[in-house]
């Protein structure tokens, strides 16, 4: 069953998801200085994916799709297609799964770009080209340049909330 896992203000969603991302990054060995900008960039991606939590279900912060028998909920994505999205029991579990997925070979280039230059939008576009999202499939269709511009705008606003 699809369960909304956020209710509250957009800024509070940003702060809570930033803290969760930061905590998992630190637990996985990132320094404080490295974890902060990486967490801001990750939350920026999640903000786009979930509308700053308005469409966050079952702690799936990044809209990770389910495969096989993984726990899931069926929801309509931005293209209008009904898909199976992972369902998690906790925010920490959802954040951990997101970072695990970034570590898989399909997204490894995007993760490397994120970790080496977290303030650049290049990692986000690499993530899309690797198959996480396709702005041209959205309704209405968009472009890769528009996706970059959107990400950069969202990242700027997330960074302002974090301070």
Strand content: 5-15%
Structural class: mainly alpha
Largest sheet strand order: 1-2
- CATH architecture term: Orthogonal Bundle
Would you count the extended β strands for me?
2
Topology order in helix (H) and strand (E) letters: HHEEHHHH
Distance between the termini: 36 Å
Low-confidence stretches: none
Number of structural units classed as domains = 1
Shape: globular
CATH topology: Lysozyme
The proportion of residues forming helix, as a percent range, comes to 40-55%
Q: What is the CA-based Rg, rounded?
A: 15 Å
- Average pLDDT value? 95
Oligomeric assembly: single chain
Q: What count of helical segments does DSSP give?
A: 6
Major sheet description: 2 strands, antiparallel
CATH classification, class level: Mainly Alpha
Protein topology:
Layout: H1 10-27, H2 32-50, E1 72-76, E2 82-86, H3 91-103, H4 108-116, H5 122-129, H6 144-162
Antiparallel strand pairs: 1-2
Helix pairs in contact: 1-2, 1-3, 2-6, 4-5
How would you describe what is shown here?
- With 163 residues, the chain is mainly alpha-helical.
- The protein has a single domain, classed as Lysozyme.
- It is 53% helix and 6% strand.
- The protein contains six helices and two strands.
- Strands 1-2 form a two-stranded antiparallel ribbon.
- Strand 1 and strand 2 form a beta hairpin.
- The longest helix has 19 residues.
- The model has no long low-confidence stretch (mean pLDDT 95).
